[in-house]
Amino acid sequence: MTTDLTAVGDTSLLDTLQHEVALFARRAEQTRLGGVGQVRNSMDRAAYLLLNRLDKEGPMGVKALAASMGIDSSTVTRQVAPLVDTGLVKRTSHPEDGRAVVLQLSPRGQARLEEVRASRRQLMAELTHDWAPEEREAFCALLTRFNGALSARMAGHDRGDS
After folding, report:
1. Rounded-to-integer distance, Cα 114 and Cα 93, Å
2. Model pLDDT, residue 1
3. CA angle 110, 111, 115 (to 5 degrees)
4. How far apart are CA 104 and CA 119, in angstroms?
5. pLDDT, tens digit (0-9, with 9 covering 90-100), for 5-45
6. What is the CA 11 to chain-centroid distance, rounded?
7. Within 32-72, where are the H helices?
8. Do residues 53 and 69 touch, judged by C-beta distance below 8 A?
9. If residue 26 lies in a helix (H) or strand (E), which one and from where to where?
10. Fewest C-beta in 10 Å: which of 2, 12, 55, 158?
11. Dihedral angle over CA of 125, 129, 134, 139, nearest 10
12. How far is it, in rounded angstroms, from Cα 45 to Cα 93?
């Protein structure tokens, strides 16, 4: 049974929140929040997220990568192919099972990811230059919490929960 949470909250505030989230999503997609300078818009969202995940979690198979990102294995396979073709990701044999393939960030991929991260950090610094450090921390914490709630909701929908 789902509770109508709008009954307990301020509907005006919730309307403003949903509108601002919609605007953010559109602007983020339009600008791709790609960074500044030469690196701006130079890496699509899927590539960035895949490279970032491989960097943070280390080498892994397609199924494990898909599971950790909450997407389908066929989607990962399709998104990884151009990263392998351009030398940003290497396919190697699994150390314990030579038949299995493991995806790993290549040195070129690591360097490219660092370049994009630096550019995106610069963009975030520019967008929040007049914010107090506490405001940046609070925004980051709340956005992380919001993304976690969205992720949990999507995971629940994938299982058929309501």
Report:
1. 25
2. 44
3. 115
4. 23
5. 555 568 888 999 999 999 988 887 776 656 666 655 578 88
6. 29
7. 45-57, 62-69
8. yes
9. helix 11-31
10. 2
11. -60
12. 27
